[in-house]
UniProtKB/TrEMBL annotation:
Belongs to the dTDP-4-dehydrorhamnose reductase family. The lineage of its organism: Bacteria, Pseudomonadati, Pseudomonadota, Gammaproteobacteria, Pseudomonadales. It catalyses: dTDP-beta-L-rhamnose + NADP(+) = dTDP-4-dehydro-beta-L-rhamnose + NADPH + H(+). Pathway: Carbohydrate biosynthesis; dTDP-L-rhamnose biosynthesis. Binds 1 Mg(2+) ion per monomer. It comes from Pseudomonas nicosulfuronedens. Residues 3-291 form the RmlD-like substrate binding domain. Catalyzes the reduction of dTDP-6-deoxy-L-lyxo-4-hexulose to yield dTDP-L-rhamnose. GO terms for cellular component: cytosol. PANTHER family: DTDP-4-DEHYDRORHAMNOSE REDUCTASE, METHIONINE ADENOSYLTRANSFERASE 2 SUBUNIT BETA. It comes from the Bacteria. GO terms for biological process: dTDP-rhamnose biosynthetic process; O antigen biosynthetic process. It holds the Pfam family RmlD_sub_bind. This is dTDP-4-dehydrorhamnose reductase.
Length: 294
């Protein structure tokens, strides 16, 4: 890898997965420790003025965007300002920007898979903030890759998977929507995609733009829960036997979470040659890491 790569968010689950995967191929990252209050516009200005990397992978707010149950408006607003500044700095210093985004930019009203050409219409504050950040990056920093991911699953104790497994140990009844669909995506697979994109950009390929990626085989949250519980029993005793079906509209997060969140991944395949991997294959390793940590 000829480019000097800076990773913001090297301490979170996706950042750690990217560092692990890079190490296997002798690819290293500058992964600066964030200030106590987290990365903001002023600290990012100082950082990039001093370091001048060739590419920035912005995973600084990964947990809030992909794993947190909710994020307050003030925190999202601060993150928006930071991404705006980061985008301006990358353009000023001629740095490539890899910026993650999410299926949450769509409202989930259509049952067919969303492509990059479909018009975003986010439901909740998190999706709306991500959509505004996407628009700013496009307008400010032409040399960017926006990666919209499906349902990201990681091994953090307080992430989406961790909260579900924690409840499964204590509660005998768990409700999951049987009419909500998406692409489960283990964090190691998402890291593979980011690294594959970086390798091609390192070859001076100007493949800028927006791309979708989600694990192979779209499914419902109910089916995903059934598979996760089946695999988790190899590691731990659970109180719940099977999750119970519930309509998407009856779920407490129905106002924020798209009912149909399946992403079409043809563009990333045709442009970068990145083939989607089956999410089921990645679950055992993910659960093994999770149970070793808790």
């Amino acid at each position: 890898m000829r480019m000097r790569l800076m990773l913001l968010g090297g301490g979170n689950a996706l950042g750690q997965a990217l560092i692990r995967l890079g190490a296997e191929e002798d690819i290293g990252f500058l992964a600066p420790r964030p200030p106590e209050q987290g990365w903001d516009a002023s600290s990012l200005t100082v950082l990039l003025d001093e370091t001048r990397p060739d590419a920035v992978i912005n995973l600084a707010y990964y947990f809030d965007w992909f794993q947190a149950e909710a994020v307050d408006a003030a925190r999202l607003a601060s993150q928006e300002r930071a991404v705006e500044r980061l985008s301006e700095l990358c353009q000023h210093h001629e740095i490539l920007l890899i910026q993650p985004s999410s299926y949450r930019v769509f409202d989930g009203a259509r049952a067919t898979a969303y492509s990059e050409k479909d018009e975003p219409l986010p439901l909740g504050p998190r999706g709306q903030a991500l959509w505004r950040m996407e628009q700013w990056v496009r307008a400010t920093c032409p040399r960017h890759v926006l990666l919209r991911f499906g349902w990201l699953l990681d091994d953090s104790a307080d992430g989406v998977l961790g909260r579900f497994l924690g409840r499964a140990e204590k509660e005998q009844v768990l409700f999951l929507a049987d009419d909500r669909r998406g692409n489960p995506t283990p964090v190691d697979d998402a890291a593979r995609v980011i690294l594959s994109v970086l390798k091609q950009l390192d070859c001076q390929s100007p493949l800028w733009g927006t791309y979708h990626y989600g694990g192979l085989e779209a499914t419902t949250t109910l089916s995903l829960g059934q598979v996760v519980l089946g695999e988790a029993r190899a590691f731990h005793t659970l109180a719940v036997q099977e999750p119970s079906p519930q309509a998407h509209a009856a779920r407490p997060d129905a106002g924020d979470e798209p009912q149909h969140a399946v992403l079409a991944c043809k563009k990333i395949l045709h442009t970068f040659g990145i083939k989607p991997r089956a999410w089921r294959a990645g679950l055992p390793a993910l659960l093994d890491r999770y149970y070793r940590h808790v």
